[in-house]
């Protein structure tokens, strides 16, 4: 994905909690010689430097992984639509505001290993249960469901690359961003408070000019000159 400088992550301390809190994403496997990749929505657990999940045995993901083990887990969330008139403050014309969407997105890449043996599958299930419902008593999957374990397979992804983007108004100045944060809290729709919190958290590291102003045009030209990928 394209990540402009203003939306770059500040590091693992930012993207890891986001991924852990989302807990749901899309696993993508290109396989070999396919017209389109296999894409599977799935729950997952981020455990250190690996991703753990399980899928039903007939899932086409396993054929794609057998062809080529490289996969991407795409996680996105905490999104909120920003209407055009929200971009104007003071005496600025709300009619010429440019709408946008705030969101976070992380793409995790690595080699996938498939586990078939019931004991290994149960190990992954135990880790998932401990992470997803801590403190809730539950029967051990290997003891309670030995037959059903053969109907699923576990996948472990060894992480070796992470791309993270946090698009929360980093391309505008603090005054415009604070105005949007206030409107998000006031609207209070799904995702609004989460998006506002991200914008607040990142406010002290992003101080670009307002994107609708003449000053912003000069800023974008300067950014493009210093970043060859900025026009992608």
Order of helices and strands: HEEEEHEEHHEHHH
CATH topology: Pnp Oxidase, Chain A
Number of domains: 1
Ranges where pLDDT stays below 50 over 5 or more residues in a row are 210-232
Q: What is the β-strand count?
A: 7
- By CATH reckoning, the class would read Mainly Beta
Largest sheet: 7 strands, antiparallel
How much is the radius of gyration in Å? 21 Å
In oligomeric terms, what are we looking at? single chain
Major sheet strand order = 2-1-5-6-7-4-3
Please state the overall shape, judged from the principal axes of the Cα atoms. elongated
CATH architecture: Roll
| Distance, first to last CA | 10 Å
Proportion of strand residues: 25-35%
The percent range for helix content is: 25-40%
CATH superfamily: Electron Transport, Fmn-binding Protein, Chain A
Task: Tell me the number of helical segments per DSSP (H or I, 4 or more residues long).
Answer: 7
Overall pLDDT score: 90
> What structural category do the secondary elements indicate?
alpha+beta
Topology:
Elements: H1 12-22, E1 24-29, E2 38-43, E3 45-47, E4 50-56, H2 61-67, E5 70-82, E6 100-115, H3 118-132, H4 141-144, E7 152-167, H5 174-187, H6 192-201, H7 214-226
Antiparallel strand pairs: 1-2, 1-5, 3-4, 4-7, 5-6, 6-7
């Amino acid at each position: 994905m394209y990540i402009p400088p203003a939306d770059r992550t500040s590091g693992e301390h930012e993207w890891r909690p986001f991924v852990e809190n989302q807990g749901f994403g899309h696993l993508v496997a290109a396989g070999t010689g396919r017209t389109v990749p296999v894409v599977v929505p799935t729950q997952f657990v981020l455990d250190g430097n690996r991703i753990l999940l399980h899928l039903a045995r007939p899932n086409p993901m396993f054929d794609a992984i057998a062809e080529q083990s490289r996969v991407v887990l795409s996680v996105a969330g905490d999104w909120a639509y920003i209407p055009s008139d929200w971009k104007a403050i003071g005496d600025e014309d709300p009619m010429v505001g440019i709408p946008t969407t705030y969101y976070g997105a992380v793409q995790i890449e690595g080699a996938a290993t498939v586990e078939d043996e019931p004991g290994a599958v149960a190990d992954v299930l135990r880790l998932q249960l401990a992470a997803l419902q801590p403190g809730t008593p539950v029967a051990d999957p290997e003891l309670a469901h030995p037959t059903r374990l053969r109907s699923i397979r576990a996948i472990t992804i060894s992480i070796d690359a992470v791309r993270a983007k946090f698009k929360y108004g980093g391309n505008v100045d603090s005054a415009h961003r604070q105005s949007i944060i206030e409107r998000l809290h006031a609207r209070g729709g799904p995702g609004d408070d989460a998006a506002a919190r991200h914008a607040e958290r990142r406010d002290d590291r992003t101080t670009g000019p307002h994107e609708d102003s003449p000053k912003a045009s000069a800023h974008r030209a300067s950014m493009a000159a210093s970043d060859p990928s900025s026009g992608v």
